[in-house]
């Protein structure tokens, strides 16, 4: 059987699949050629990340597909229900990238509170001629310790983020329509651990109480944070989105940044991805990454081996 990993797969995933008797194809096929390639090469399984879309047209055109796999959590680039209605297995790897995404959240938080994203732009330009000026410009940093982190969506990634926040000495609050409360276990290198219970509260109260907000929700029909929600936030709040583009109104975000209502934002995902708006890309108060939440070697190894395990189980 043949597996097309159109958006790539880790070496460990390839080895596990080959050991299970599968041929793995890692050729990057253009979106408009995916269906033809699958049929011409008798592909049984297509694996994607966020780049390739597997919609109704491909599903209808490729009756030989047995499994559609998503390396990661969200499956908004796959017509999941339609595929299942055609008897196709749809799989993903919800647990594999949680720690990597959570660490990126804190990369953006640390960058924001200490102006790293902006100082890294300006030090090469002015570091030799305006050192004291830059030192003064970036002198008003704040600590994360003791501050309140509001987590919107306390699923696997939200919980991984909560653990890191607790380890830093932050107060953690959460809002989640589907998880009323969760026990979060913070484990240490020597085998010791502590467990704390986080009870979900209303979004409105989270917005009013949080010093920093991080979003961990799937793609939405509307904004989680739009103009009305920005008005509820504390002055000087920091916001991070490593979830999905389109859950924050970027026009309202820029206004809030310009007014000082929001001190900084950290964005890994964008409304108009893969062509983010220039006003976002050039804003001095936004820390930017190009949708790399799960892009660590460790996460990709876990994703690859987990996909391989599920495929082998389903088709053996």
From TrEMBL:
<feature type="domain" description="D-isomer specific 2-hydroxyacid dehydrogenase catalytic">
    <location>
        <begin position="9"/>
        <end position="315"/>
    </location>
</feature>
<keyword id="KW-0560">Oxidoreductase</keyword>
<dbReference type="InterPro" id="IPR006139">
    <property type="entry name" value="D-isomer_2_OHA_DH_cat_dom"/>
</dbReference>
<dbReference type="InterPro" id="IPR050418">
    <property type="entry name" value="D-iso_2-hydroxyacid_DH_PdxB"/>
</dbReference>
<dbReference type="InterPro" id="IPR006140">
    <property type="entry name" value="D-isomer_DH_NAD-bd"/>
</dbReference>
<dbReference type="GO" id="GO:0016616">
    <property type="term" value="F:oxidoreductase activity, acting on the CH-OH group of donors, NAD or NADP as acceptor"/>
</dbReference>
<dbReference type="InterPro" id="IPR036291">
    <property type="entry name" value="NAD(P)-bd_dom_sf"/>
</dbReference>
<dbReference type="Pfam" id="PF02826">
    <property type="entry name" value="2-Hacid_dh_C"/>
</dbReference>
<dbReference type="Pfam" id="PF00389">
    <property type="entry name" value="2-Hacid_dh"/>
</dbReference>
<comment type="similarity">
    <text>Belongs to the D-isomer specific 2-hydroxyacid dehydrogenase family.</text>
</comment>
<keyword id="KW-0520">NAD</keyword>
<dbReference type="GO" id="GO:0051287">
    <property type="term" value="F:NAD binding"/>
</dbReference>
<protein>
    <submittedName>
        <fullName>3-phosphoglycerate dehydrogenase</fullName>
    </submittedName>
</protein>
<feature type="domain" description="D-isomer specific 2-hydroxyacid dehydrogenase NAD-binding">
    <location>
        <begin position="107"/>
        <end position="293"/>
    </location>
</feature>
């Amino acid at each position: 059987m043949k597996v097309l990993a159109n958006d790539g797969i880790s070496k460990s995933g390839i080895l596990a699949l080959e050991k299970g008797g599968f041929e793995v194809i890692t050729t990057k096929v253009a979106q408009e050629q995916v269906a033809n390639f699958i049929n011409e090469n008798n592909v049984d399984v297509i694996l994607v990340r966020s780049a390739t879309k597997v919609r109704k047209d491909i599903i209808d055109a490729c009756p030989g597909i047995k499994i559609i796999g998503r390396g990661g959590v969200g499956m908004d680039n796959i017509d999941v229900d339609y595929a299942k209605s055609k008897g196709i297995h749809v799989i993903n790897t919800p647990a594999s990238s949680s720690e990597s995404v959570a660490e990126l959240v804190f990369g953006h938080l640390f960058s924001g509170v200490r102006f790293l994203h902006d100082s890294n732009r300006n030090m090469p330009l002015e570091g030799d001629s305006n050192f004291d000026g830059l030192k003064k410009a970036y002198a008003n940093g704040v600590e994360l310790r003791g501050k309140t982190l509001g987590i919107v969506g306390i699923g696997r990634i939200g919980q991984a983020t909560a653990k890191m926040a607790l380890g830093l000495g932050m107060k953690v609050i959460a809002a989640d329509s589907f998880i009323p409360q969760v026990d979060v276990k913070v484990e240490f290198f020597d085998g010791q651990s502590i467990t704390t219970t986080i009870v979900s509260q209303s979004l409105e109260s989270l917005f009013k109480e949080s010093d920093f907000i991080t979003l961990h929700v799937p793609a939405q029909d509307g904004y989680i944070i739009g103009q009305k929600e920005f008005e509820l936030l504390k002055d000087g709040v920091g916001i991070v989105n490593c979830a999905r583009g389109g859950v924050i109104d970027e026009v309202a975000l820029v206004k809030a940044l310009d007014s000082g209502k929001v001190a900084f934002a950290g964005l890994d995902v964008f409304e108009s991805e893969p062509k983010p708006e220039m006003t976002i890309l050039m804003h001095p108060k936004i820390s930017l990454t190009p949708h790399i939440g799960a892009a660590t070697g460790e996460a990709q190894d876990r994703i690859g081996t987990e996909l391989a395990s599920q495929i082998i189980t389903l088709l053996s």
